[in-house]
Design a protein that fits this description.
2 strands, mainly alpha, 7% strand, 152 residues, single chain
Length: 152
């Protein structure tokens, strides 16, 4: 007999809230080890994954206000984690570029947690993991849109 859908959704919402809180605390602790804020480390993660971006693109992808992005890039640049470079095809534009040599130590801090996550994946079938992945992608996109709405 399957459980009531509304009960599962209630538990899923509660688990999501708990996961969100733990994620913020984890990233805040990780950031503090490097003298960064959680927003700064997540911006570095975005630049590492997506490559160099303009400040406008950073604002669009993070949902932060353009003025906030300017201050964020200034702080990351002063700390040596990013650099501003000329756009290769449009000299009027400036790209914010990730400096991987500055964050090598961050990767080591993830190893312990990553090992546990990889171990947890083993508890699920490929089909179950595909469902989790579909859910996470959908939830992430909805949260990205909500963040952008809050920054208007």
């Amino acid at each position: 007999m399957s459980r009531d859908r509304s009960k599962i959704i209630e538990e899923l919402n509660e688990a999501g809230r708990e996961s969100s809180a733990v994620t913020v605390m984890f990233h805040s602790a990780l950031a503090a080890k490097q003298g960064l804020s959680a927003t700064e480390t997540k911006t570095l993660d975005l630049l590492q994954r997506d490559g160099p971006l303009t400040a406008k693109e950073l604002a669009e992808r993070t949902g932060l206000a353009p003025a906030s992005v300017t201050g964020l890039v200034d702080r990351l640049s002063e700390k040596g984690f990013v650099r501003r470079v000329k756009h290769p095809t449009d000299r009027r534009r400036v790209l914010v570029e990730f400096r991987p040599e500055k964050v090598a130590d961050l990767a080591e801090l993830f190893d312990d947690w990553l090992g546990e996550v990889l171990e947890h994946y083993e508890e699920f079938s490929a089909a179950e993991l595909e469902t989790v992945l579909r859910f996470m992608r959908g939830a992430t996109e909805r949260q990205r849109r909500a963040s952008a709405r809050l920054s208007r």
